[in-house]
Amino acid sequence: MKIIDFHTHVGDIFHENRSITFKTNYHKGKYVDPFIPFEESGYNMPFFPESPEALQQLIDAGQYRVWECTMENFARDMTENKIAYACLLPVLPNTSFEEYLAVSKLDSRFIPFSCANFDLEIPEMEQKLRSDIQKGAKALKVHPILQNISLENAKVEAAVDLFGKMGLPIIFHVGIGQYYGSDTNYPQNPEFGDPQYFYDFAPRFKDYSLIAAHCCGWPEAFAENTKGLENVYTDTTFCNAKLIKKGVELLGEDRVLFGTDYPFGSFKYSIVEVKKALADNPQAMEKVFYHNAAKLLKLED
């Protein structure tokens, strides 16, 4: 069974700006990693811990994981887990389309997405995005928290409109989350990830393919708030089998995409949960793993 991971990152997507994507011989280090028991539980544990100390430990582990996420390590994990394609989602100003395009030139299993530079004025931003599309960008990534921009901002609407009119999908981070601890002073607005922003935004773009990442994690609320929007999808990032099954039941088997948010989620355990969720529906499993994403990306094979 072929698998497309619609939601991955390579390199340092955070504000440390370490240029590690093309480094070689980076070995995964030994550090306290709360992601491991979360994965091994089948994503059945609470993701964000309550105590400040445990939250800081999780934040630190996320940073360590991206510092180990070289193209070399990523490609090895793809091979071991038989991933056919991985969609690379850049997050400006930390990782760029150009960086991910270069990765795709070296290994055709990687599919590069673009990300808008919201520091530019709209005409310059649009010109850059058109150039990215001409060079091979297959979709647009919007991360309101890490990019410090609300979906109510006109620049977001302009970027989405440009990709939508070209028939290319747009994937949004959805969900309130904290990426930096008290020991850093990087700008962030966790509230920009509030799902309500997406629920208010999506109805204005009914002709475009919109992917709300992470929302299979709350399938009932997502289905209710996107009722009638057949152009809206979500992914399976950090979801256990029960949530995936419910998401497919409520949204339909055509609107759920396999995703891991690699390197924060793992291929191995994420694949297991989809297989458990859809064991009695092989057609839906094939759609979630491959065909839904292939249709959005216009893959020919």
List keywords for this structure.
alpha/beta, 11 helices, 301 residues, single chain, six-stranded parallel sheet, TIM Barrel, globular
Outline the structure in words.
- With 301 residues, the chain is an alpha/beta fold.
- 40% of the residues lie in helices and 10% in strands.
- The protein has eleven helices and nine strands.
- The strands form two sheets. It has a six-stranded parallel sheet with strand order 4-5-6-7-8-9. The protein has a three-stranded parallel sheet with strand order 1-2-3.
- Helix 5 (122-135) runs parallel beside helix 6 (154-165).
Q: What is the N-to-C order of secondary-structure elements (H for helix, E for strand)?
A: EHHHEHEEHEHEHEHEHEHH
Q: List how many beta strands DSSP finds.
A: 9
Global shape: globular
What fraction strand?
5-15%
